[in-house]
Amino acid sequence: MEKNLIILLSCCLLHFASAQLRVGFYSSTCPRAETIIRQLVQKRFGTDRSITAALLRMHFHDCFVRGCDASILIDSTKSTSSEKDAGPNLTVRGYELIDEIKKALEAACPSTVSCADIITVATRDAVDLAGGSHYKVPTGRRDGLVSDSAEVNLPGPSLSVPEALPFFRAKGLTLNDMVTLLGAHTVGVAHCGFFQDRLSNFQGTGKPDQTMNPALAARLLRTCGTASRPLNRDPTVFLDQNTSFTFDNQFYNQLRSKKGILQIDQQLALDRSSAPIVSSFASNPNAFQQNFASAMIKMANIQVLGGKAGEIRKNCRVFNPKSRRGF
Ligand code: HEM
Ligand SMILES: *[C@@H]1O[C@H](CO)[C@@H](O)[C@H](O)[C@H]1NC(C)=O
Ligand SMILES: CC(=O)N[C@H]1CO[C@H](CO)[C@@H](O)[C@@H]1O
């Protein structure tokens, strides 16, 4: 009886939380919110097309740690270490664009638009600007009150498909969602340190990873150096070696030609479970764009705070003063 009640409650509370989100949440409280976000993303994109990749990665890291609650934006203090300071976040970029958008929104409608929604809407716009599809994204997320580097547990680049999948399943996402969302690697870069092991003496074989095109491996080795003798500064290479700044399905074509940079990316084309999805996206650009829009909406719904939970931060980098955080 009691157990049933708990199941009933948790079902409906969860449902309630996500039911708070709706397309056009700010249409009466801050009608220009989405326009203001779009204009600032567009301005930045005009001088820096890499902003699409920066926002996509920020959004993913935010949503996979404690849900899409802008916990990734919190700066560490002398006594606390926030999500930003966890190893995998090392190279997340774009924080200053979020600050700029927040400043403009606070001027237009103070304490109304959450930082979590800014990340979500800005990412949607940046994908569209880079050639992806435009989709309507529900808003109404609230900002979280906790950000702890110890909670960051993101999948690493050297995983197999069956090893990576549980990270997605734990967030309510499917294999299809995972293969689709990794399509975000159609834009952006990776530092050599994340794939250097593939370039020479892969897993002690004395050879490069045989699943990588040999000409590509040789070229990357010149850029990166070997794992035992890496080049000084950790250089970056494009994750999609063909159309590096365009949000298209070329990433999947690259995987089919053994030109994936990260091991997990290449594995998508090789594992029996994911290979058919890669093939279908490689041959059908519209299928990829449509699946990507739905998978992004799903990712943007992970463990969101609605109603009166959390807060609307005034500065995305710090919790509002005086809010109580359970200690
Ligand atoms: C198994 C899951 C994933 C793994 C292991 C993974 C791993 C990585 C790694 C190692 C990098 C390179 C970071 C650097 O050197 O700075 C990277 C970059 C990137 N990731 Fe992922 N990723 C995953 C899923 C995702 C998802 C779901 C998204 C978004 C929907 C995403 C978006 C990006 C983007 C856009 C970049 C380029 C960032 C830039 O250019 O600044 N990744 N990823
Ligand atoms: C690169 O992308 C273009 C544009 O989508 C495509 O037509 C071409 O076949 C691709 N080239 C390679 C080598 O994959
Ligand atoms: C941008 C940022 O805050 N990077 C941090 C990520 O984590 C590393 C390692 O813990 C820190 O040294 C960086 O400052």
From TrEMBL:
Intracellular or extracellular location(s): Secreted
Residues involved in heme b binding: 185
UniProt feature coiled coil, ranges: none
SUPFAM superfamilies named in the record: Heme-dependent peroxidases
Positions of the catalytic residues: 61
Keyword annotations of the record: Calcium, Disulfide bond, Glycoprotein, Heme, Hydrogen peroxide, Iron, Metal-binding, Oxidoreductase, Peroxidase, Secreted, Signal
Cofactor note: Binds 1 heme b (iron(II)-protoporphyrin IX) group per subunit.
An MF annotation (GO) of this entry: lactoperoxidase activity
Signal sequence, renumbered to the chain: 1-19
Binding annotation for substrate: 155
Primary enzyme class: oxidoreductase
Domain Plant heme peroxidase family profile, first and last residues per copy: 20-320
EC numbers: 1.11.1.7
Entry GO CC: extracellular region
Residue pairs linked by disulfide bridges in the UniProt entry: 30-109, 63-68, 115-316, 192-224
Keyword Heme belongs to the record: yes
Residues that bind Ca(2+) 1: 62, 65, 67, 69, 71, 83
Amino acids binding Ca(2+) 2: 186, 240, 243, 248
InterPro entries: Haem_peroxidase, Haem_peroxidase_sf, Peroxidase_pln, Peroxidases_AS, Peroxidases_heam-ligand_BS, Secretory_peroxidase
Keyword DNA damage: no
GO BP annotations listed: hydrogen peroxide catabolic process; response to oxidative stress
Site entry: Transition state stabilizer: 57
PANTHER family: PEROXIDASE, PTHR31517
Name under which the protein is recorded: Peroxidase
